[in-house]
Specification:
Layout: H1 5-14, H2 37-40, E1 43-45, E2 48-54, E3 66-72, E4 89-94, E5 100-107, E6 112-117, E7 138-143, H3 162-175, E8 181-186, H4 188-199, E9 204-210, H5 217-224, H6 233-241, H7 251-259, H8 264-280, H9 288-291, H10 297-312, H11 322-325, E10 335-340, H12 348-357, E11 362-366, H13 376-394
Parallel strand pairs: 6-7, 6-8, 8-9, 9-10, 10-11
Antiparallel strand pairs: 1-2, 2-3, 4-5, 5-7
EC number: 3.4.11.5
Family: Belongs to the peptidase S33 family.
Keywords: Aminopeptidase, Cytoplasm, Hydrolase, Protease
Length: 396
């Protein structure tokens, strides 16, 4: 006999079936359901087509069972970090008379190339950065930018600009004989990813960005001139108190003076304070392992000196809105923007501005996350973004 959808919806609206249904990742509400819902909305939630069937009986007094079956119209995107892997190749590339950069490759040597761009600037790469990518599909390339990580000379500011780094990326691509690649970057890495992609759009197959930083004055002022202090006054005070009151009109300038002092101990003291401030605000829930990075003189010196150098020089961009002004150059490239709702370091206003300028890119807001790529919700969306681009490449 035909299925009586009117009867089903009446039963559902009375709540008789409410406790017999289980819809993964689907929150039921008390909104009445029309029988037309089943015809107009065959899909309940991403990637799963729900088939509704009523089990008929001779008596209306018997409960009607509604069974939701998922049919794989398309595969669910993996959101789990991949297992830790080791590089199959490492090396150093001399990119100028001053600088030599460290690089590594992992994953599939014959896979689709993807370039990971670390944050800071000055943060360097770490083994966990490889885990965002399917090692069976991707040829994963990491490198430490000038002065950072294993690159030499350590914490060097000479010949260290955004445009120098873009030239380095091209030299590395040519050195590794890669015709084109996917680009992945978070925080400062998102800045560099945008700047590189806008300079060489023909070399980029896809873009994944996280914790958007457009290096505008209002972003620098928010984090380093007292805005974020409203949320983290306890973390702000040690950063503030290192600077005498008569120099507090511009903390970036005051720290620049100390990070470039002739006295190495003065540099270290300023570097630890600068780094600790950022590390204490990088996660929605403070992460002790991240905070401890601020205790390392070696890490802090490169991180603080190079960051401050770039911020003092406004990212070496010609205008405050340079990256937004050049979005048309990458509009045709598949992109994904991932942003933590409660990102204190790179507040969501920048991701929102980028989203409005580049609506063609997917925009994922993680509602329970801050800034760090290692927060569970952000990590999941970053993996899923790479999976999406992987499927696009496979289906070409």
């Amino acid at each position: 006999m035909p299925i009586d959808f009117t009867e089903i919806t009446n039963q559902m609206n009375l709540g008789l079936l409410q406790n017999t249904l289980l819809f993964p990742h689907f929150t039921t509400t008390t909104t009445p359901i029309s029988s037309q819902f089943f015809f107009k909305n065959p899909t309940f939630t991403g990637g799963k087509n729900w088939v509704l069937r009523a089990q008929n009986s001779c008596s209306k007094s018997e409960s009607i069972q509604l069974v939701a079956e998922s049919m794989d119209i398309k595969n669910e995107l993996n959101k789990n970090l991949y297992e830790q892997i080791e590089p199959y190749a490492t090396g150093f590339l001399k990119v100028s008379d001053v600088h030599t950069i460290y690089w590594e490759q992992s994953g599939n040597p014959s896979g689709h190339p993807v370039l990971f761009l670390h944050g800071g600037p000055g943060g360097g790469t770490s083994p966990g950065n490889r885990r965002f990518f399917d090692p069976q599909f991707y040829r994963i390339i990491l490198f430490d930018q000038r002065g950072a990580g294993k690159s030499t000379p350590h914490a060097c500011l000479e010949e260290n600009t955004t445009w120098d780094l873009i030239k380095d990326i091209e030299k590395l691509r040519e050195h590794l004989e890669i015709p084109e690649w996917q680009v992945f970057g978070g925080s400062w890495g998102s800045t560099l990813a945008l700047a590189y992609s806008q300079s060489h759009p023909d070399k980029v197959t896809g873009i994944v960005l996280r914790g958007i930083f457009l290096l505008r004055k209002k972003e620098i002022d928010w984090f380093y001139e007292g805005g974020a202090a409203a949320l983290y006054p306890d973390a702000w005070e040690p950063f503030r108190d290192l600077i005498p009151e008569n120099e507090r009109d511009c903390f970036v300038k005051a720290y620049h003076k100390r990070l470039n002092s002739d006295d190495l101990n003065t540099q270290y003291e300023a570097a630890r304070a600068w780094t600790k401030w950022e590390m204490m605000t990088a996660h929605l829930i403070p992460n002790e392992e991240t905070i401890k990075k601020g205790d390392s003189d070696e890490f802090s010196l490169a991180f603080a000196r190079i960051e401050n150098h770039y911020f003092t020089n406004k990212g070496f961009f010609s205008t405050d809105s340079h990256l937004l002004d050049n979005i048309d150059k990458i509009r045709h490239i598949n992109g994904v923007i991932v942003q933590g709702r409660y990102d204190c370091c790179c507040p969501m206003m920048s991701a929102w501005d980028l989203h409005k300028a580049w609506p063609e890119a997917d925009f994922k807001v993680v509602t329970d996350a801050g800034h760090s790529a290692n927060e569970p919700g952000i990590a999941a969306e970053l993996v899923a973004a790479n999976e999406k681009l992987k499927n696009i490449i496979r289906n070409k």
